[in-house]
Design a protein that fits this description.
The chain has helices spanning 10-13, 64-67, 98-107, and strands at residues 34-42, 47-52, 57-62, 77-82, 89-95. By secondary structure, it is of the alpha+beta class. The chain has a domain at 32-125: OB fold (Dihydrolipoamide Acetyltransferase, E2P), CATH 2.40.50. A 5-stranded mixed beta barrel has the order 1-2-3-5-4. A hairpin with a 4-residue loop joins strand 1 and strand 2. One of its GO terms (molecular function) is RNA binding. Residues 1-26 are annotated as: Disordered.
Length: 138
């Protein structure tokens, strides 16, 4: 049998994650007809509910190019393209990583309270309160 030399069929799937590199990518800024938003709730079939920086809550469609490759979760900062004919709907164009969102905040593109640091919350920070009332002891 001849040896498979090309990158078709099963050979294309091998090592598909090897191309991922940790170098910084270029920061994408908004243009006319686009807005920054924070994902509030993930819905089904490639839809999410996001709060835009202009104060409008919009139903956003995750474009097919991103659906299986870029995972979007609640709280992520995304760039949405506004629709001319529907003000309450938009399309997710780009997802920002945490460091990119901080860079946008430093540039003044995002308001101050929207980007939160990735810190694990515990009782030592004082944000968790434990009530000892009703505790019978062991």
């Amino acid at each position: 049998m001849p040896k498979n030399k090309g990158k078709s069929g099963k050979n294309r799937k091998k090592g598909k994650n090897e191309g991922e590199d940790d170098e910084k990518r270029e920061l994408v800024l908004k243009e006319e007809g686009q807005e920054y938003a924070q994902v509030k709730q993930m819905l089904r079939n490639g839809w999410c509910e996001a709060m835009c920086i202009d104060g409008t809550k919009r139903l956003c469609h995750i474009r097919g190019k991103m659906q299986k490759k870029v995972w979007i979760a609640t709280g992520d900062i995304v760039l949405v393209g506004l629709r001319e004919y529907q003000d309450d709907k938009a399309d997710v164009i780009h997802k920002y990583m945490a460091d990119e969102a901080r860079s946008l905040q430093k540039l003044g593109q995002l308001p101050a309270g929207i980007v939160k640091d990735d810190l694990v919350c515990c009782a030592c920070h004082g944000c968790l309160d434990f009530d000892d009332e009703g505790f019978d002891g062991i």
